[in-house]
């Protein structure tokens, strides 16, 4: 992969990371501002449910930020764009669709088939 392509993916990853960071900050401020105690148990339950959903989403985003950091580190070491399983290059179309991809499409497909078989 050329240095121009690597810089392109680095910029995409940094943009995603900045956007996720802004979402997390906005959620924290919103939760602090809307911290009201409702007298009605139904209102309180609804608020707690909303908060739980929001926290679950932020946890997913936190994990994605960690994966983005790992991917940027791979770019720095020159390992980006290669499948962790078989070592071949991951296609550019796949990396454009999912810049944090660590498996080529064939290995990912096999991985998903294994997951389905284990789940049954």
Please give the structural blueprint.
Blueprint (H helix, E strand, L loop, with lengths): L2 H31 L7 H37 L14 H6 L7 H15 L1
Helix pairs in contact: 1-2
Overview of the structural elements:
This protein is mainly alpha-helical. The protein is built from 4 helices and no strands. The protein has 2 domains: 1-80, Four Helix Bundle (Hemerythrin (Met), subunit A); 82-120, no CATH class. Helix 1 (3-33) runs antiparallel to helix 2. The protein has helices at residues 3-33, 41-77, 92-97, 105-119. Helices cover 74% and strands 0% of the residues. The mean pLDDT is 90. The longest helix has 37 residues, at 41-77. 7% of the residues are buried.
What's the total number of strands? 0
**End-to-end gap:** 39 Å
Residue share in helices? over 70%
Largest sheet: none
Q: Using only CA atoms, what is the Rg?
A: 19 Å
Helix-strand topology string: HHHH
The CATH homologous superfamily of the largest domain corresponds to DksA, coiled-coil domain
CATH topology of the largest domain: Four Helix Bundle (Hemerythrin (Met), subunit A)
Strand portion, in percent?
under 5%
For the record, the CATH class of the largest domain is Mainly Alpha
CATH architecture of the largest domain: Up-down Bundle
Keywords:
flat, 120 residues, mainly alpha, 74% helix
Structure described in brief:
This protein is 74% helix and 0% strand.
